[in-house]
Amino acid sequence: MNRFAVAARVALLIALPACTSSRAPAEPAVFGGEGASLKIRGETPLPTGPDAQGPVAACGRVVPPSDVGLLDDFEDGDNRLFKGFQREGWWFSAADDTGGTIVPDKGKFEPAALPAAEASADNHYAGHFAASGFKDWGAVWATTLSFADEGIRCPWNASRFEALRFRAKGNATVTVRFAMPETLPKEFGGQCESRCYDFHARKLTFTDAWTEYVVRFDRLQQGGWGPEVRFDPRTLLALQFAIDGNTPPVDFWVDDLELLPKSTPTSAAPAQAGAAH
Questions:
Q1: Is 121 exposed, middle or buried (0-12, 13-18, 19+ CB in 10 A)?
Q2: DSSP class of residue 168?
């Protein structure tokens, strides 16, 4: 299988990204898709200003920008993203069907207690992920991202931010991915009609010591096998940590995920080489 097509087969849980009148915060189904070759399209600058018109959310409008940077510190001990104002998300895990093992189990998520030597008075939990033996597209751990207002859910607007920052440790090379409507099929609330799932991404290699990582939005890139689109933080649907199939066993921890406001100094964080592919 083309390594770029791995992203196309990754299961992605989307919390009703298109507008819906359902008022019950349900956890919807897992789904996947198929990818193909790259289609080159001309680039145009993204619009600016409060009244700018451009790529809109799957529900037909760009929702107001969020001012909540914390995504999750896992201290609430559940599978729900930190509940920012008008923001909703659910953590989950998924993997191919080639008989491997994954922690947490497929379709589930639960923060893990930190070892006593690493815990502190205000930090008891983190995300603990492990996988081995998958031979197709691999495994993914992710959270959905959606704007929620009186039962209406749309892609989430992170335009006030410029980077994702988090701490991690472990023996894993992981691809951090962001999903948008242009790379997600219409039947799942996106706008993509063919060769979907080529999400914007950045590959990182973790170490055995807790380390801070910064993934800048302007360093994300697509794999190159799907339609080429501009990354637009105004219409985010999900954040993923993914590994490819046929890789050695991985075991890693992630904690204190937050988005950095624009113009936040990031020089203290280690620069990470690597690409979406």
A1: exposed
A2: E
Beta carbons of 82 and 71 less than 8 angstroms apart: yes
pTM of the complete model beyond 0.85: no
CA 208 to chain centre: 23
What is the phi/psi pair of residue 82, to 5°?
A: -50, 130
What the block records as the tokens of 4 is: 């770029």
Residue 223's domain comprises 3-21+63-261
Q: What is the pLDDT of residue 66?
A: 95
The predicted-structure confidence for 73-101, as pLDDT tens digits, reads as follows 999 999 999 999 999 999 999 999 999 99
Which residues in 229-249 are b (16+ Cβ under 10 Å) and which e?
Answer: bebbbbbbbbbbbbbbbeeee
Closest CA to 14 of 97, 106, 96, 88: 88
Which tens digit of pLDDT belongs to each residue from 13-52?
433 344 333 333 333 333 232 322 222 233 334 444 433 4
**Is 52 part of any domain?**
no
Question: Is 54 within the bounds of a domain?
Answer: no
The whole-angstrom separation of Cα 179 and Cα 17 is 11
CATH number, domain with residue 250: 2.60.120.430
